[in-house]
Amino acid sequence: MVWLLWFSLLHASTGARLRGAWREVTRGDTTAQILDAFKHGALKPFNPSMLQMFPRDALGSWVVLQPEPSNTNEARVLSIYPAPMGSITLFDEKGASRTLALDDFTAPLHGHGRLAFRLTVDRGQTAPILLKFEPSNTISAPERFALQDMDDYLQDDSDWLSFATACFAVMVTMALMALCFAIMLRDMTFAWYTGYMLCYVIVQSIETGFLFHPLGLSWLAGSELLIGTSATALSVSFAALFVGRFCDLPRYAPMLRVPVIALGFSMPLIVLLRCSQIPELMDMARALVNPVLILGALLLLLSALIAGVRGSRQAWFFLLGWTPLLVLTAMTSAQVTGALPSLDWLNDASIGMGAFEAIVLSLGLADRALTMRHDRDNVRVLADRDALTSLLNRRAWTEAANSMLAEAIGEAQPIALLFMDLDHFKILNDRHGHASGDRALMAVAEILSSELRPTDLVGRYGGEEFVAMLHGVNQDQAMQVATRLCRRIHRLDIAVDQKDLLLSASIGLAMRSLGDTLESLVERADQAMYYVKLNGRNHVHAFERRAEMSAMPHRPHSTHGQNR
C-alpha cells in the first residue's frame, strides 16, 4: 500500500484540464484539415488524463488537445507519459513544428521519464494543441497527457528524477556488490545475479529515457531498440542461470533443471539472430522473443515455487522479489490492449519494484552465503571432532598443537603435555561390552572438558588414549592438574570386573624444552605414561632423564587395546 500511495502522489495531476481527440494519419492530411475536423467533432474523443493507445505502425496518428481556460498567463509545459520510444511532432497555428524523442539532445527542455514540450505565452491559453505521433517500428504503448505551469512541471520532474535515481542506484549498487562477492568467493551465483540486475537496469533506463536524460549517453542514440531487446533477452537468460543455482534446482526440482538451463542458453541465441542483419533471421527472432519471454517467466516462477515447497529457503527470497515484478509486467502488458487506463504509474512502479527485488535477492544471497558457511563449519567440525567424545581427533589435535608450538617459539611461557591412557580398558570392554566402554570414554571426555581451560588443547589420540597441551603452566601446576584428573576419573566408580577393580588413568607429563618438536614432546610424555603403567597405574609421572627411565624399554604405539 505504501508503494501505491507513493506512485499515486508522484503522478497526481496538478495541471489544466484537457479535452482530447485523435485519428490515424492518412495521406494528404494537413494540419488545417485536422484542426477543422476536431472543431466539428469528426475525431475520436478520449480522456487525455487516462492512458490511450495511438497506432504508429502505418503513417502514425494525429492527436488534438483542447485546454480549458486558465487564469494564469505563464508559460506552460505539455508532458507525455510514459516516454514513447518513437518521436512526436508538435505543430502551432502557423504550421511550424518541433519534433521530440527520447534520444533527442538538442531540445532546450528535456523531460525525465517523459517527453515535454514548452508552450509559449503567445500561443493562447485555449488554443488547440496539435500533435503527430510519427510512424515507428517499435511496439506502441499507451500514453497520457498533462498540461502544467512551469513550476509544477519542474517540481514533478524533480520528484521523478530523485525517485528513479535512487532506484537505479540501489540496483547498480547491489549488482556491483554481488560482482565483488562473485570474484572473492568464486561463486557464479553472484555473477548471474549481477548480469540479471544490470540487464534489468539497462531495460528500464532505456524505456524511461534515463539513459539519455539525465545520463546523456548520446552515443547510444538510434540503437536503443536493439539494446533494449537484447538486454531483455539476456536478463531472462541470467535470471534462469541464477535461479538454477540460487534455488538449488538439481536438489529440489531436478525435473525442471534442464528446461531452465535450456531457457538460459536459448535467449542469447535469439539475441544473436536479432543482431545477424539477415532479414529472415531477424524476423524469426522478433517472432520468438515475446513467447519465449512469457513462457520463460512462468517457468522460473514454477521452478522457484516447487523448490520452495520442497525446502529451498532461497526460493522464497526469489519468489518474494520476482512475483511483484512479474505481476507489474503482466499489468503493463495488459495496458497495451486498452486495460487499466487509469493506472499510469505502473511503469514507474516497475522501477521501484526492481529496486525492491534487488534488495530482497541480495538478502537471499547473504542468507545463502551464511548457510553455506554454516554447512562448511559443520563439515569441518565433523572432520575435526571425534564422533564419540566430541574432542579433537588425532589429526585436528596434531595440527592445533603444532600451531601452538609454532606461536610459542621465543616465548618464555612454559608448555606442558599430558598423555593419558585408561587402565584396564580392555577388560571393561570384554566383561561389560563395547557400549559400556563407549560410555566410559564419554564420561572421561566430559571430565577433561570441564577440568581443563578452554584454551587448553584436548584430544582423543586413539582408542583409550587422550592428550592435552597446557599453555603457560609450569611443571608443578601441570602435576596438580593431572593428579586432579586421575582422582576425578577414579571417582567415576566404573567397575572393570567383579573384584572391585575400578577404571582409572595413567598420565605421563612432559615439559617443552628448547628444540622440541611435537613428536619429541609426545614421545617423552608417552614414555612417562608407560612408566606409570609399570609402577602401579592410577597416578602421574613427569618425564625425567634418569638412568632407570633411560634403561626402560620404549613403548611402541601399537599397544592400543592391550590389558592395561
TrEMBL record:
Enzyme class: transferase
Transmembrane segments: 160-183, 190-213, 225-243, 255-273, 288-309, 316-337, 349-366
Pfam family, one: 7TMR-DISM_7TM
Source organism, top-level taxon: Bacteria
Domain (GGDEF) ranges: 413-545
Catalysed reactions, as listed in the record: 2 GTP = 3',3'-c-di-GMP + 2 diphosphate
E.C. no: 2.7.7.65
InterPro entries recorded: 7TMR_DISM_rcpt_extracell_dom1, Diguanylate_Cyclase, GGDEF_dom, Nucleotide_cyclase, Rev_trsase/Diguanyl_cyclase
Keywords from the UniProt entry: Membrane, Transmembrane, Transmembrane helix
Protein name as catalogued: diguanylate cyclase
Organism listed in the record: Dyella flava
